[in-house]
């Protein structure tokens, strides 16, 4: 969307004889009436709108606490967190809208709220930045909210227009006849507990008191190019550094919104559990579709479709593209073509997660024998990966464990097994391989063992290293443990009987308030015996 300093003039009535620009030609499919009699007619005769305001979102108090924790880091600064706009898929078709995760986290809103919205944390008290930045925080990330709030949140969006407006019937992006009932400012205020204002007032609100001796602006610059451009125009007009010169200022905000999500509050953990439970149901459906998959030339698509249907039924959809990789395809780490056949006797590696309506996602991998039984070589590889996963989980539960230690524990098992199987280079032990000049075992598992999980499948991606990889595990952290072994069919260093086998086991883990770790995925079968029983229980 674009912002202008003045209200847009009413669109002139098109001259049918004037040459059409390319952009206008998309309207040639039909002629929408614009005569006043029609406008009066379509704007009348509708029943009343519901007059009860919606109930407060259950996420609202949690989101308010998150905003307070963010505000404390930037006293005196105006913080702009855009929801993002619609993204074009092709021509005039957009992808389904999904707000930026920082916005969803801080506004406490989920699905479908609201393209082009922006959350602004307006500084309270004496205006004026004090020069503090996110990097002034305590290194353990344990900031607590100030006693007095530092900011007031204001949510800017385009509320629904009246039914007598042209927008109502003619605007394919905002019109209620096109996109369904849209909210009023009062309704969103009731649902979120955040003061709401019309998006058209955003430019003036951003400019108010901005300047070197006044308010400094920070924006999550990646969320919406149009809002970032607006912020930069406001900065330039106010004599503030803008564009690349403001990058550090903006990066500090993006970093802080990412680090704020390193620990999840109890409401978020509950949402993640719901996502995992829906994912379990999706895996059940996928297993039920195995017989049909083996008969279809693109059986992997049958599996993908079975999971995807459940993801849409139970949640917003997929948290990321499903990997349904049969046989040797499991050894292509990001196999999302899913256009291969599924043969009895093979394994199928499925990495899939449901994103629930609050936009939190699960991230689960199970490796399943297509005909319900592991062969001996498949079981050997599977057990090695399972042992690595168990070792990583046990390490995560030890006091003082750092995020990176979880990976180390998994690698110790992987390297030991590869040494046992004679796969490390001549004269190299597992201990040698684990050293910085070795790492030969990583040929067969080039990805990491863990990542944070939340609103993004790879959550907290802008967090500083010392706050993530190098940090100790803390209550509220949610992360994956996902070791694997990938033996490509054409890998001559792999014993012949293991070639073409790829296994990953991925669980989602939470650190509880007492520091213990717990698998959110514990109800999803994991061991080879459990997986066999799972398949036979569902398809005999
Ligand atoms: N599904 C993406 C990942 O496991 O990281
Ligand atoms: Mn993962
Ligand atoms: Mn995954």
From TrEMBL:
Its EC number is 3.4.11.9. Keywords: Aminopeptidase, Hydrolase, Manganese, Metal-binding, Protease. GO terms for molecular function: manganese ion binding; metalloaminopeptidase activity. SMART domains: AMP_N (SM01011). InterPro entries: Aminopep_P_N, Creatin/AminoP/Spt16_N, Creatinase/aminopeptidase-like, Pept_M24, Peptidase_M24B_aminopep-P_CS, X-Pro_dipept-like. Pfam families: AMP_N, Peptidase_M24. One of its GO terms (cellular component) is cytosol. The keyword Hydrolase applies. It catalyses: Release of any N-terminal amino acid, including proline, that is linked to proline, even from a dipeptide or tripeptide. GO terms for biological process: proteolysis. Belongs to the peptidase M24B family. This is Xaa-Pro aminopeptidase. It comes from Actinomyces ruminicola.
